[in-house]
Amino acid sequence: MKNSIEKLFNLTGKTAIVTGGAMGIGKGIAIKLAEAGASVMIVDIVADKEASETIEEIRNNEGIVDYIQIDLSITSNLPLVIEKTIQVFGDIHILVNNAGIFNYMPVTELTEEVWDKTINLNLKAVAFLSKLAVNTMISKKHGGKIINISSIDSLKPTGNLAQYDSSKGGVRMLTRSFAKEVGKYGITVNDIAPGGVNTPGVQKIAGTNLSKEQMEATKVQMEQLMKMLPMQRMGEPEDIGNTALFLASSASDYITGSTIIVDGGLLLM
Fold first, then answer.
1. Among 40, 205, 191, which Cα is nearest to 114's?
2. pLDDT tens per residue, range 18-62
3. What domain range includes position 191?
4. pTM exceeds 0.90, yes or no
5. Residue 226 lies in a domain
6. Which DSSP symbol is given to 123?
7. Number of helices and strands in the chain (H, E)
């Protein structure tokens, strides 16, 4: 029994692309997939130096990893991700679309620049990188796994995040649209909707476009919210990594077009 369970989650011989994999949720996912034996290509806009900690951690645990520094919001860059991954690892079996941005901004102050920047990375890049990965998987005739990171904000808006919520709602529907079309090729497409996860991005970005008073109110609300959560704690990147591992493994072969909510019960509030 133990050997059969280990085999179910063994990703040895598989190649996984993890966008936004240098830190936060992406880091948690990259580490888990590497621990399961996958060769991981981390794709991120941050410099090599900033990504080195994640790469070193994976390699110290005998994981296989490489890194591409690139801006995914530029559509013409996306084929380079596929080309480099195939050049280094020879194939693509798993794509995790995790890269994304958010800025708190009231709708009364929303700008076209912020809207376009958010949609281009959070939704457009997901669509067109998935298209490229799917075509590769089809040509290789081995099926595959597409895992998109959405958000509980796609189900219940927090406020002051209209552009982010819209992009993540789009990701959820994109997941279903892809799943309906590519299942016949043995490709599953699912999304994970995290909520209340403790990441550097949340700590750094949250509140940057709010007034001092709004920022303080948001901070107090978050502290109160975490105390009221059924799990009474914030989520960690590892929590999302565990879920991504399940969706990347053979254990999830009959699951497609689904959203898995990982929020410590936040949506029950």
1. 205
2. 999 999 999 999 999 999 999 999 999 998 888 999 999 999 999
3. 2-198+236-262
4. yes
5. no
6. I
7. 10, 7
